[in-house]
Amino acid sequence: MIASRSPSLRVKIPLRVSLLVIIVGCVITASLLYRAFGVFREDLLVSSANLGRILARSLVTPMLHDDVWKAYEVINTPFGIDTKQGALQADLVLVISRNGRVYVSTQPSDYPMLSEIGAGQPELNDLRRRIEQAPLTDQQLLEGLGFNELMVLTPIISDGVLLGTLVMGYSRDIFSQRFLGFAWQAALTTLLIVIIVLAPAVYLARRFTDPLVKLSNCMSMIGSRELDEIECALDPSPRNDELDQLQRQFRLMLAELRDKQQLEQQMVVTERLAAIGRFTAGIAHEINNPLGGLLTATNTLLRHGQLNPMAEKTVRLIERGLKQIRDTVGTLLVEAKHKSHPMSRQDIDDIQALLQPEAQRRRVALNWDNRVEACLALPSTLVRQVLINLVLNAIAAAPEEGWVDCRSEIEHETLLIEVSNSGEQISDEVIAHLFEPFMSHQDGGRGLGLWVTYQIVTGLNGTIEVDSGPVDTRFTIILPLPLMAAA
Amino acid sequence: MPNALVRCVLVLCLTLVPLAGGAELIYPGDPKPAPIRIGITPVFLDNQTGFLDRWRTYLEARLQRPVQFSQRSTYRQIIELMLSDKLDFAWICGYPFQQFRPHLELVAVPLYQGEPYYQSLLIVPSSDLETRHIRDLKGRIFAYADPDSNSGYLVPQAAIEALGEDRDTFFRKSFFTWAHAKVVQAVADGLANGGAVDGYVWETLARIEPELTRRTRVVSRSQRFGFPPIVVRKDVADSDRLALRAALVDMHLDAEGRGLLAELNLDGFSVQDPAIFDDIKKLMMQIGAP
Which of A19, A215, B183, B188 is the most buried (most CB within 10 A)? Predict the structure, then answer.
């Protein structure tokens, strides 16, 4: 069952970095916009206040002379200049006479001369109310009138007498236009930064995620594949950062898993062999007891039975069968605590002498490398039997003109025996059951040699390992030497 | 007025400004002769210093005398300068010519579209599709050009008088723009609901700044009147009067003169009988003007 996978970190990290940049850009832009808003407002207030004062002064004479056209020209002055786009320019300039009517305006069609303020222009009702409330003595700022307009009211005063009121209206557009431009610029800058940052972000993301992805792939193989088949091209860098440590730890873990698995397999084999050993020993004992009686009986019959030839022949047949049973059972009953003299170098060399003829007969070279010098506190009979079994097997497995090596030496308080031959490789399935009884792999063999060998070696607290390859097959026996390596 | 062309606004008020900076002429025989102080008829375009400079140079070459131009913002100021001997010649409207007839003499009359006549136009904003006559503008706001202008003041005043209305209260409000082109502007912007304008100015504007005149609609045209003439104070020497008259009347004969006339949108100057301004006199009498 495959859960829907979220996108790879390779994608996520650059995306998130971009997102972060965008968020940061937005926040910065917002703060700049906020700040710009303040500055802009301040600018607007100052410049419109100044402009208002200048216009108001210029309007005094035209109003005193009732020169409407001159007043119209005066209030249009700011519009006559080609201003930069987004400059602080009023949308509407109104001159309101003392009677609350429009004296002149820059938009005569919308605010005709002599019309009443607020009549037909509800947005100006507030303005009218404000003007009617109290005569204006100083500049005033009205905000939030009508369409969120900003209005600057300047009294037109001549010799202390109020002639009228100059109203300059700034619509919201003047803000939005400027802010749109600003925001657009900020968006472009942010985009540019995103583009610039994206490439390093992708590169960094790859540097982080590539090892992680490899690790992830390797880990996903555990469980679905044999441990030995898992090959991970992990490549921890010498920087030794967390990622590198992770890779090293993973490799270590993989190795330990492999060891553990091997150990478990060995344990299974050992357990099985031990169970088989207990079982066969039990059967052998059960057979041995009546067997002794039977043999005594046949022996007595043959000596004192005065048997007719036919009976005698039959009894001898029974006796031979019983003896064969005894041999077989005897072989199965490996007696580890066999009493025998300590082992010497000569015991090993004797075996060479004993088996050399068999090797010659099979035209197999027997290379003997005996490095054991001292006497060993090991039962010589059992070790000899082990050695004989292994070398005979090796000679039998080796092809004609092949070779058998036998090496024995003392190593770290153990006796190491290595028997190898140039025979065919043994398959894994065969190796799995190699040390079980009656598993003969040679013509004519009973399949008890390796079983006995295994019993003896384990009885002596040693280990036996087989390693079969295309070139040779090697049995390695390690027998711990009892502490007192006395003669 | 944003358009650069608009700077060429025709202003039919006498405005003579001493134009400094012109190249000094070298005259044969010292001492330097006295300059001709032309209140040359400024059919004049606002901000046409360059044109006046060229015209001055042209006339100086013809007259072999220095020429001076002066500009003021009202007709009345120019007349006062003339009567107080500060100017010799002036390009003024037929109305002041009639007003101050005993002190003035005709020098030349411009030819517009081949004739020494022009009309007064009644204009309204182009959005006004109702107005058919000046009576329809009763109680509205009206723009006059100048109180001493025939086409921009006298004609509509006489028309109101003819309706039997009180000229002072006929319009709810009226104002002067002190220039014909500005009457057009005021009406086009909707500042005034109607205005009276010199037909020559309106038509010339229609050529150089059609987007402005398109925002106005001509309701009616008056009868024809004598075109604003170039006049001289009576006590100025005949030789000077004749010399300037000749220079003006002959302008169409040479290329340079034709070029200057084309800039003025005129065909030339002519010698006319002062009787062509009698119709203005009639209007003056209609409204009881002195």
Answer: B183
Q: How many CB pairs under 8 A join A and B?
A: 36
| pLDDT band of A82, cuts 50, 70, 90 | low
CATH of A342-480, one of 3.30.420.40, 3.40.640.10, 3.30.565.10, 2.60.60.30: 3.30.565.10
Q: A108 and B177 in contact by Cβ < 8 A?
A: no
CB of A65 within 8 Å of any CB in chain B?
no
Consecutive H or E run containing A480:
strand A473-480
C-alpha–C-alpha distance, residues A139 and B85, integer Å? 49
CA distances from A404 to A100, A449, B27, B110 (A): 129, 17, 143, 142
Chain A residues closer than 8 Å to B178 by CB: 69
Any A CB within 8 A of B196 CB: no
What Cα–Cα distance (Å) separates residue B145 from each residue in A197, A309, B7, B13, B21? 68, 173, 18, 9, 31
The reply to whether A69 touches chain B by the CB within 8 Å rule is yes
Q: How far is CA A304 from CA A102, A308, A319, A320, A386, in A?
A: 161, 12, 15, 18, 41
Handedness of CA B33, B39, B43, B47 (dihedral sign): positive
- Burial B1-34, CB ≥16 within 10 A → b, else e: beeeebebbbbbbbbbeebeebeeeeeeeeeeee
B100 three-class SS: coil
| Cα B43 from chain centroid (whole Å) | 5
Give the pLDDT confidence of B29-44 residue by residue, as tens digits: 555 678 888 876 545 5
The CATH fold assigned to A9-180 is: Beta-Lactamase (3.30.450)
Please tell me the total number of residues recorded for chain A in this structure. 487
Please report, for chain A, the start and end positions of each structural domain, with discontinuous segments joined by +.
Answer: 9-180, 242-332, 342-480
- The structure's pTM equals 0.60
Q: What pLDDT, in 10s, does the model give residues A16-74?
A: 877 887 888 788 878 888 887 788 778 878 888 888 899 999 999 999 988 999 999 99
Is A68's CB within 8 Å of B127's CB?
no
Which residues on adjacent β-strands are paired with residue A374?
Answer: none
Q: Check B143 against A69: CB less than 8 A apart.
A: yes
**Cα distance from B60 to chain A (closest Cα, Å)?**
36
Is-contact A95 A104, C-beta < 8 A?
yes
How many CB atoms are closer than 10 A to CB A238? 5
Contacts of A69 in chain B (CB under 8 A): 143, 175-178, 182, 186, 191
- Whether B191 sits inside 8 A of A68 (CB atoms) is yes
CB A80 within 8 A of CB B1: yes
- A444 Cβ under 8 Å from any chain B Cβ: no
- Backbone angles phi and psi of B166, in degrees to 5: -80, 120
Q: Is the pLDDT of residue B3 over 50?
A: no
Q: Which residues does B177 contact at the CB level (< 8 Å), separation at least 6?
A: A69, B143, B144, B145, B183, B185, B186, B195
Give the other-Cβ count within 10 Å of B150's Cβ: 32
Q: In degrees to the nearest 10, what's the CA dihedral of B12, B14, B17, B23?
A: 70
Which residue of chain B is at minimal alpha-carbon distance from A83?
Answer: B2
Q: Which domains does chain B have, with CATH numbers?
A: 4-115+227-286 (3.40.190.10), 117-226 (3.40.190.10)
**ipTM for the complex shown:** 0.81
Q: How far is A187 from chain B (nearest CA, A)?
A: 34
Q: Which residues of B touch A101 (CB under 8 A)?
A: none
Q: Is A82 in Cβ contact with B2 (below 8 Å)?
A: yes
CB < 8 Å to B173, chain A: 68, 113-114
Backbone angles phi, psi at B264, to 5 degrees: -85, -5
CB neighbour burial string for A89-119, b if at least 16 within 10 angstroms, e if fewer: bbbbbbbbbeeeebbbbbbbeebbbeeebbe
